[in-house]
Amino acid sequence: HRHRMAEEQEPKRPRFGTRTLANEADVFKCNAWDHVEMKPEELQHAREVVARHCESAMPAAAAEKLEVEAGNNWDKFYTIHENKFFKDRHWLFTEFPELMPEGQAPPSRAEAAGDEEGERPPRRGDGPAPVPAAEPLVQETPEQRLAHSAHATRRFLEVGCGVGNTVLPLLAVNRDPGTFVYACDFAQSGVQILRGHPNYEPQRCHAFVHDATSGPALPPESLDVIIMIFVLSAIHPSKMQDTINTLVASLKPGGVLLLRDYGRFDLAQLRFKGNRCISENFYMRGDGTRVYFFEQEDLDALLTAAGLRQLQNHADRRLIVNRGRQLTMHRVWIQCKYQKPAAGDAPLPASAPTVSTTTEVDDEPTPAPAEAAPAP
Fold this sequence. Notes:
By secondary structure, the chain is an alpha/beta fold. The chain is 24% helix and 21% strand. Strands 1, 2, 3, 4, 5, 6, 10, 11 and 12 form a nine-stranded mixed beta sheet that branches. It has a three-stranded antiparallel beta sheet with strand order 7-8-9, with helices on one face. α3 runs parallel beside α8 (188-195).
């Protein structure tokens, strides 16, 4: 998993979202630049790389085997890495203030800066994290799950919760007694690790095993917020629309769906080998988990087809710089906020996807310099 590990970050650097490359000659003066579009020749190179991937895509039988084993592969992932791989997502409150209690301001960018999203490199001497015994997992109906939050005035659901890198910061920051957090994942090992964490609060949170492609997790119109962070990309493209439709049915009118995922021609896509291509823009990682790379328009089509209206659809395009090797690398993420219309809502004017001014967030950090290819 070396290619998915984060490089060490410098302790001091410019504020995220403000590192604008005004002069191309200055590119190696900073480790990263915000809002950098690919040059025409870079974009053409990226298209050619992806076209070559498609030409050597894996056989249909191998792709089908990955679909059948998707849950097992993620289960193995969390069994191996436990709670050491991903960093806690404290940046979420800056990006999505809807997660904060009403009337409470989100943490400043400076307060969140030390918690960039990404995989945490294992440290020498690391052993298995001690995980207290959790309550046994019980199969429940959507209605039985809803009963856990009978007292709640606001209900959140995180889809693809893993070991709690979103849920645990959310419980720590949002102390509103009326807020209840649901968390589901189809990897039982991840859910068990979350439920065994000392900061897991069963009176304020309910984590359970659930495959989001298989049906509703909670009853219709029961949720105020749905959170999907680097999750939709792991689902087979043929199942994405039905999955979104099912989730949206559980949103209350006026509720919001918050999403962040991988963008087309991100460095992580371009560095795949052709035999890892399942289908166009859909790939297998070395551990058998899968990832899709979206255009903004892809996500807009999926979400609006489910009846949501766009509040935000941003492309976060960042140029990562290796000054020692004089290399530049493009990272691309898409961030969305869509709302289920309430009765009597006036339609929002049509708006094109825009460029983001986000904090430093990343679930698949830039590969080690030795593995990164120079820009063409």
